Amino acid sequence: MTNVNTAGTGLDLPDADEILAALRAGYRSIDEGYGFYPGFDGWLTSLGYQRRDDIPCTCPDRGYRGHLPECRFVR
Ligand SMILES: [Zn+2]
């Protein structure tokens, strides 16, 4: 997926369908009492993505209105 923030880096960001599925996993995780992020992060991790703290923000607006849950998840 092409993203202004990762163009040319060879990093792959989750696409819209993968993010939607991860959001659903996060809401399921809330229903099961674990909170949103264990489900959301776990779903993306299972697809091979990792949250990287050593790269710039990957939000389309660069975090201007706050960071998205999938910010910095790349593979
Ligand atoms: Zn961000």
Terminal-residue CA separation:
11 Å
Mean pLDDT equals 93
- Give the neighbour order of strands across the main sheet: 1-2
| Proportion of beta-strand residues | 5-15%
Rough shape? Answer: globular
Determine the oligomeric state from the structure. single chain
Kindly name the structural category: mainly alpha
Largest sheet: 2 strands, antiparallel
Give Rg in angstroms: 12 Å
What bound compounds does this protein have? Answer: zinc ion
Number of E-state strands: 2
Secondary structure: helix percent:
25-40%
- How many helix segments? 2
**Uncertain segments of ≥5 residues (pLDDT<50)?**
none
- What's the helix-strand series? HHEE
Structural account:
With 75 residues, the chain is mainly alpha-helical. It has two helices and two strands. It has helices at 16-31, 36-46; strands at 50-51, 73-74. The longest helix is centred in the N-terminal third of the chain and has 16 residues, at 16-31. The termini are close together. The relative contact order is 0.22. The chain binds zinc ion (ZN). Zinc ion binds at residues 57, 59, 63, 67-68, 71. The site of zinc ion has 6 residues, from loops.
